[in-house]
Amino acid sequence: MAYQVPRMDELESRAWLALVWTSELLPAALDAQLQADSGITHFEFMVLSTLQQANGAALRTKDLAAAVNATMPRLSRVVGKLAERGLVERLGGDGDARVVNVHLTTAGRRELVRAVPAHIALVKQLVIDRLSPTELTALVGVLEPLVERLDPQNRVGFAAAQRASSA
Fold this sequence. Notes:
Elements: H1 10-38, H2 42-53, E1 58-60, H3 61-67, H4 72-84, E2 88-92, E3 100-104, H5 106-126, H6 133-150, H7 157-166
Helix pairs in contact: 1-5, 2-5, 2-7, 3-7
């Protein structure tokens, strides 16, 4: 019996490649804008935004890493850079030396507030304004189930960060 290579039809292939290229190109465009306008990367923006949304603007390092879908080494490097710039601070856990909490500083909050308008303008220009309300609704309907499938424990995003900060 001959092995059959799985195939996609033309529509499946176009849909898949559109999703792949969007996921490749969009972060680079967002990163370039944030770096040029605010001197922060898109990942740093996500870290600051996630902390902003957390209860008390602080999260344990492991919860922050999960919420921004980062490895601990990557998050540690970025938090170190943000701490050097005074945008976050590392605080010890309540009596447990193994626990490190990351807290958004006033300077970090200020930097985030300054970065948001241009960031939102680019997001609207590249994505939101290109789609009708019906298409936006369809996009939500298509992507939210994919996110749920890829993250069944709901460990990424603002909701996960808020849950972790309440625990």
